């Protein structure tokens, strides 16, 4: 049992809980039908696909991916934005593999901390939740997040699922009533074991003193699932990722599991306990069910069984490491008790710091994601955090490094290569391709190198090595830059004859390389990839229907007309750059700085 003294009134029965897997009931098409899109908001672009066949064979299960349901005590911050950007990149990659993705995000809106935050703002809890939840939706739009489902724990369908789930666990004999006394962290909304507290009995996470509290609560018999959880972690080591997080979870379980409180008598803002309306359901026994209730369509009859049949179990829960215990210990045990399959995997990523220091309002060094987007653009923000933070570990933000990385990779390696190549094509070929990309690359090693790196990036994406995938795709860009510098097509065009013909082929080879980069990089920088793809003469509709298989060499055809060359990514100028440019203009009669998205050697 959790820290403190518990005096049992009714012991839980020893009834074993099954862990069966429910059958998947297939809808006729992707969740993103016109009706679903209208019901859930303008968060997805493109077209839905039907995955049903004329045969009786069941369709493949969906790839269900979730972020945490974010707590609405305060507006979103860079930590929640990072998790959601990463989830969006994974979802986009899975869609490129032609998977039927259900990407779930949302907000956790019940509990004492929410009521307290609302009161501090002079609002009632519902109005407060509406405001903060909407701020998440607005930020996700700013960050190019294309989720499929946004669940709020104040939704009626969610409450129906929670009530069904509670009843199932109660029927399993795993809920009992007890008096509880212990040290409580209001910020965590959790009783703490005294031995894990710091000086002055402070919570190790929030660094605030825990307060003594005594309550009459309902408890979940977590200890009953000790051996089943040990078996789960032993037989399925990929259940918790990365591997060092698995070691953490195994340590918690082996140290002995204690039953935990699943209700609060002192909190009014929450879902009432079905068999005792004087108490409300504890936030985690409520919020975790959002991953299941989100699978329901708005307006349909809500039940736990119906929600499960919509596509459970989840393929991946993506969370911060601070809530790993709830997702990797509490949640699977709760599901076992209700006879529902556990998720396939839980991935706990690290924390973000700024200039090597933990971020906090008291330190004045918080990082506001919307401010970053407004200053540097969404592609810069998405790319930096996915490239620079090794997924699963802690990562640091430095503005100097942010600008250097983004300028070097997106402006120079990618943007400048495309712009200079299109400039040469316009000047020498009237922006028209003279050869198919397959014919142009005959006998050229660059083609084989690109194909090998694309395969490598795919494997990295599949294994959630997002930073490594970014590195691999930049390696393709570096090869393209090296190739064009070595072949010097600008000189070959001047020579005419066979040299000019070779130069025309070289431009096709580079542009085909750029086409492949645009597709493979689209999970990371979707807006930049779209700009690249449309510059290559394709439409936005064509971009929206791309699949990973389209990274195969050979997409560009002879006679295809490219768009007018325009910079696809604006270099971030610093105060030093501006001073250098002013000095350069003064000494060189106002000539532009070389090779910054210009038409170099064109």
UniProtKB/TrEMBL annotation:
Record has Aminoacyl-tRNA synthetase as a keyword: yes
Gene Ontology MF terms: ATP binding; methionine-tRNA ligase activity
Keywords tagged on the record: Aminoacyl-tRNA synthetase, ATP-binding, Ligase, Nucleotide-binding, Protein biosynthesis
The Methionyl-tRNA synthetase anticodon-binding domain, residue ranges: 445-579
Single GO biological process annotation from the record: methionyl-tRNA aminoacylation
Top-level taxon of origin: Eukaryota
Region called Disordered, residue ranges: 569-602
Pfam families according to UniProt: Anticodon_3, tRNA-synt_1g
InterPro entries in the cross-refs: Anticodon_Met, Met-tRNA_synth, Met-tRNA_synth_2, Methionyl/Leucyl_tRNA_Synth, MetRS_core, Rossmann-like_a/b/a_fold, tRNAsynth_Ia_anticodon-bd
Protein's name in the database: methionine--tRNA ligase
Enzyme Commission identifier(s): 6.1.1.10
Enzyme class: ligase
Annotated signal peptide: none
GO cellular component: mitochondrion
């Amino acid at each position: 049992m959790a820290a403190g003294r518990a005096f049992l009134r009714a012991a839980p029965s020893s009834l074993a809980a099954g862990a069966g897997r429910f059958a998947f009931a297939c809808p006729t098409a992707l969740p993103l039908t016109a009706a679903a899109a209208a019901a859930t908001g303008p968060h997805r672009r493109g077209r839905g696909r039907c995955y049903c066949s004329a045969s009786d064979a069941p369709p493949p299960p969906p790839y269900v991916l979730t972020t945490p349901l974010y707590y609405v005590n305060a507006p979103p911050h860079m930590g929640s934005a990072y998790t959601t950007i990463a989830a969006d990149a994974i979802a986009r990659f899975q869609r490129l593999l032609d998977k039927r993705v259900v990407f779930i995000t949302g907000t956790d809106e019940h509990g004492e901390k929410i009521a307290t935050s609302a009161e501090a703002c002079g609002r009632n809890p519902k109005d407060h939740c509406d405001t903060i939840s909407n701020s998440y939706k607005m930020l996700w739009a700013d960050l190019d997040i294309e989720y499929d489902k946004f669940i709020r724990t104040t939704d009626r369908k969610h409450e129906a699922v929670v009530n069904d789930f509670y009843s199932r666990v109660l029927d399993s004999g795993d809920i009992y009533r007890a008096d509880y006394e212990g040290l409580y962290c209001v910020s965590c909304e959790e009783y703490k074991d005294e031995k894990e507290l710091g000086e002055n009995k402070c919570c190790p996470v929030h660094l605030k003193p825990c307060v003594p509290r005594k309550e009459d609560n309902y408890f979940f018999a977590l200890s009953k699932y000790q051996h089943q959880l040990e078996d789960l972690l032993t037989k399925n080591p990929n259940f918790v990722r990365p591997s060092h997080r698995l070691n953490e979870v195994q340590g918690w379980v082996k140290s002995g599991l204690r039953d935990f409180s699943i209700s609060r008598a002192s909190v009014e803002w929450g879902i009432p306990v079905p068999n005792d309306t004087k108490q409300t359901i504890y936030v985690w026994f409520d919020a975790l069910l959002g991953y299941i209730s989100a699978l329901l369509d708005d307006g349909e009859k809500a039940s736990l069984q119906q929600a499960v049949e919509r596509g459970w179990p989840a393929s991946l829960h993506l969370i911060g490491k601070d809530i790993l215990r709830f997702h990797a210990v509490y949640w699977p045990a709760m599901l076992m008790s209700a006879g529902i399959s556990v998720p396939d995997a839980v991935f706990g990523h690290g924390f973000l710091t700024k200039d090597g220091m933990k971020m906090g309002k008291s330190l004045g060094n918080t990082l506001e994601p919307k401010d970053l987007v407004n200053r540097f653009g969404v592609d810069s923000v998405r790319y930096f955090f996915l490239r620079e933070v090794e997924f699963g570990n802690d990562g640091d933000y430095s503005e100097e490094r942010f600008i250097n990385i983004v300028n070097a990779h997106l402006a120079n390696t990618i943007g400048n290569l495309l712009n200079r190549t299109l400039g040469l094509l316009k000047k020498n070929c009237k922006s028209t391709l003279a050869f198919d990309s397959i014919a142009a690359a005959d006998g050229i090693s660059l083609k084989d190198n690109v194909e090998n790196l694309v395969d490598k990036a795919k494997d990295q994406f599949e294994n959630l090595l997002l930073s490594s995938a970014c590195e691999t795709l930049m390696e393709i860009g570096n090869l393209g830059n090296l190739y064009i510098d070595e072949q010097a097509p600008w000189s070959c065009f001047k020579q005419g004859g066979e040299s000019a013909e070779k130069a025309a082929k070289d431009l096709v080879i580079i542009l085909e390389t750029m086409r492949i980069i645009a597709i493979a990089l689209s999970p990371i920088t979707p807006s930049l990839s779209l700009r690249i793809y449309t510059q290559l003469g394709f439409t936005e509709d064509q971009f929206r229907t791309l699949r990973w298989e389209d990274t195969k060499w050979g997409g560009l055809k002879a006679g295809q007309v490219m768009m007018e060359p325009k910079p696809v990514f604006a270099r971030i100028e610093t105060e030093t750059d501006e001073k250098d440019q002013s000095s350069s203009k003064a000494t060189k009669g106002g000539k532009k700085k070389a090779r910054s998205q210009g038409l170099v050697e064109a």
